[in-house]
Amino acid sequence: MELKLNNKVGIVTGATSGMGKAIAEAYHEAGASLILSGRNLERGNQLAAQLENSVFVPGDVNDVDYNQKLVATAMDKFGRLDILSLNAGILGLGNVVDLSVETWRDTIDTNLSSIFYCSKFAIPFLQEGEGGNILINASIAAFKSFPNHPAYCASKAASLGLMKQLAVEYAPKIRVNAICPGPVDTPLIWDSAIAFDQPEEAVENAKNATLLKRLGTPEDIAKLALFLASEDSSWITGSAMTIDGGIINA
Ligand SMILES: NC(=O)c1ccc[n+]([C@@H]2O[C@H](COP(=O)([O-])OP(=O)(O)OC[C@H]3O[C@@H](n4cnc5c(N)ncnc54)[C@H](O)[C@@H]3O)[C@@H](O)[C@H]2O)c1
Questions:
Q1: Do the domain assignments include residue 67?
Q2: CA distance readout (Å), 52 to 46, 70, 223
Q3: What's the confidence (pLDDT) of residue 181?
Q4: Quick one: pLDDT at residue 1?
Q5: CA atoms within 13 A on the CB side of 189
Q6: C-alpha to C-alpha distances, 14 to 24, 86, 87, 199, nearest whole angstrom
């Protein structure tokens, strides 16, 4: 494989499962050194052992200091920082009346504020050298509602607002984009299905509702994440790209 991220250093949040893990593996294969962010110690240590030139830094992305530590570790270990793949996310399920204020805040923090925290500390370093790249993992939930997903939909829509703001403020040195996946086969989609009366049927329906009649795989998403982090996409910034088997138009 062509080493499209050779000599680059990246941070991937939510790297211990699902799409984050696939993104970390794709970036590694493309030659990047990585800071792997996640909460699960066993899976994080295992991934760091699997991916040469990577360091697992366990912690909670809602913690402001932890975000600073991710950036500081990249600079200490590798002396530079080029890519942020801000992928960590939660669902925060419940309708507006039943949803606790705590879950609302936790969801907004994880899916939105953590992007601000990590970007805030990383941008001065991303501006150095040839320039940096920020990639936000949003969702088609940024564009449409889903039952019992008010905090999720609101946080994902707001993450696109922040993405555009960052793209405008830090161009031309830093490119900032978002991917908006549809139903992808990760642990999260099964958690999401619980919000529906018939969870198994909900996932099957989501699959059948895609124009391409299949769920996405973490690897489908990682390929787009690699393209957007690499020089192959050097004229793309401020974009929110759906990658959803066409479900948004179904
Ligand atoms: N699976 C889907 O169908 C789908 C669709 C659209 C968007 N997404 C988005 O894709 C991203 C990745 O999700 P996934 O589907 O791979 O699910 P996943 O549950 O496998 O991955 C989410 C990751 O985020 C981490 N995370 C959550 N809260 C955290 C916190 N406070 N601190 C640190 N890490 C935290 C989790 O530990 C996990 O590793 C999420 O932002 C999600 O909203 C998923």
A1: yes
A2: 11, 18, 20
A3: 98
A4: 55
A5: 22
A6: 10, 8, 6, 24
> Residue 129 maps to which CATH number?
3.40.50.720
Q: List pLDDT tens digits, range 151-174.
A: 999 999 999 999 999 999 999 999
Cα–Cα nearest to 129, from 73, 172, 81, 74: 81
Report the atom number in ligand 1 closest to the C-alpha of 215.
3
Q: For residue 61, give its domain range.
A: 9-185+217-243
Number of separate domains in the chain: 1
pLDDT in tens, 202-224: 999 999 999 999 999 999 999 99
Identify the residue whose C-alpha is closest to ligand 1 atom 32.
60
pLDDT at 130: 87
Residue located nearest, by CA, to atom 26 of ligand 1? 88
Give me ligand 1 centre to Cα 188, in Å: 6
Residue 223 falls within a domain, yes or no? yes
170 is catalytic: no
Give the Cα separation of 153 and 59 in Å (integer).
Answer: 25
Cα of 40 from ligand 1 centre, angstroms: 13
Residue 194's pLDDT band, with cuts at 50, 70 and 90, is: confident
For the Cβ of 19 lying below 6 angstroms from any atom of ligand 1, the answer is yes
Give residue 89 CA to ligand 1 midpoint distance, Å: 4
Identify whether 196 is part of a domain: no
